[in-house]
């Protein structure tokens, strides 16, 4: 089932059709050996596991954090202005998101479906993502607003990506988030994109090690997603 049809189904029905198993994808192809390959993997409609951990950052920590990224071999990538709007879902915990991204003079709209999956002794979010045309974007936002009975939840952020050529598939981002009320501010995310048949446990261990190094301490990740922070700010 294509991502658009899957989205429409999830907007209307609370039960899920069994999904066909996606063709096996090599770790190299899914995680990408270059920045361009990583973007392509993110924007493809093949499901992946989004193994990521988010950490709150204080303004006073930014200098030291940035210095450690350089010491670890990470360099700045894209600076992205993002606006996320959330479509209503029938199943608690799932996510349907329309994201508008602006990088320099270029803009793109992405549809993302996320759902929790129990795997390797824990829970991770399986992500399916695809690009939308302007017409389809307008249609989904109008339909979502109608089903929601009003304005859709939305927030914005400025995201600076950081990559290390020796760690393909790993992205560390710095987010400056607005529109989340008391939760607005700066966050760091460490993410490893893992194919459905990939090694989730190794990705978790890699993220934990990177977090210890970049923060120079053990630090607990933020448990709430940005969507849950937004919901909390609107209560």
Key attributes of the depicted protein:
alpha+beta; 7 helices; 8 strands; 37% strand; Hypothetical Protein Pfu-838710-001; 8-stranded antiparallel β-barrel; 235 residues
Structural write-up:
The chain contains 7 helices and 8 strands; from the N terminus they run H-H-H-E-H-E-E-E-E-H-E-E-E-H-H. Strand 4 and strand 5 form a beta hairpin. By secondary structure, it is α+β, with helices and mostly antiparallel strands. The longest helix is centred in the C-terminal third of the chain and has 16 residues, at 200-215. Helices cover 31% and strands 37% of the residues. The protein has an 8-stranded antiparallel barrel, surrounded by 6 helices. Mean pLDDT is 88; it is low at 21-42.
CATH H-tier superfamily: Hypothetical Protein Pfu-838710-001
Distance between the terminal alpha carbons, to the nearest Å?
A: 35 Å
In spatial order, strands of the major sheet run 1-5-4-3-2-6-7-8
- Runs in which pLDDT lies below 50 for 5 or more consecutive residues are 21-42
Structural class: alpha+beta
Oligomer: single chain
Helix residue percentage:
25-40%
SSE string, helix = H, strand = E? HHHEHEEEEHEEEHH
| Count of distinct strands | 8
Query: Briefly, what CATH class?
Result: Mainly Beta
Indicate the topology.
Elements: H1 3-12, H2 27-31, H3 35-43, E1 48-57, H4 62-71, E2 75-87, E3 95-103, E4 106-119, E5 122-132, H5 134-148, E6 153-163, E7 170-178, E8 185-195, H6 200-215, H7 226-233
Short précis:
This protein is of the alpha+beta class and 235 residues long. The protein contains seven helices and eight strands, in the order H-H-H-E-H-E-E-E-E-H-E-E-E-H-H.
């Amino acid at each position: 089932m294509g991502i658009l049809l899957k989205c429409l189904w999830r907007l209307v029905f609370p039960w899920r059709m069994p999904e066909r198993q996606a063709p096996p994808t090599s770790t190299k192809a899914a995680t990408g050996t270059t920045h361009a390959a990583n973007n392509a993997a993110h924007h493809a409609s093949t499901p992946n596991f989004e193994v990521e951990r988010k950490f709150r950052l204080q303004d006073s920590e930014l200098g030291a954090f940035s210095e450690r990224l350089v010491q670890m071999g990470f360099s700045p990538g894209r600076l992205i202005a993002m606006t996320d709007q959330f479509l209503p879902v029938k199943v608690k915990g799932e996510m349907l998101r329309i994201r508008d991204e602006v990088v320099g003079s270029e803009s793109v709209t992405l549809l993302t479906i996320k759902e929790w999956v129990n795997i390797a002794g824990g829970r991770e979010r399986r992500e399916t993502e695809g690009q939308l045309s302007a017409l389809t974007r307008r249609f989904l936002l109008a339909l979502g607003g109608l089903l929601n009975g009003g304005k859709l939840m939305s927030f914005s952020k400025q995201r600076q990506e950081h990559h290390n050529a020796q760690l393909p598939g790993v992205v560390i981002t710095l987010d400056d988030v607005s529109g989340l009320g008391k939760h607005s501010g700066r966050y760091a995310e460490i993410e490893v994109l893992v194919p459905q048949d990939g090694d989730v446990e190794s990705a978790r261990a890699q993220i934990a090690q990177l977090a210890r190094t970049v923060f120079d301490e053990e630090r607990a990740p933020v448990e709430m997603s940005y969507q849950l922070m937004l919901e909390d700010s609107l209560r």
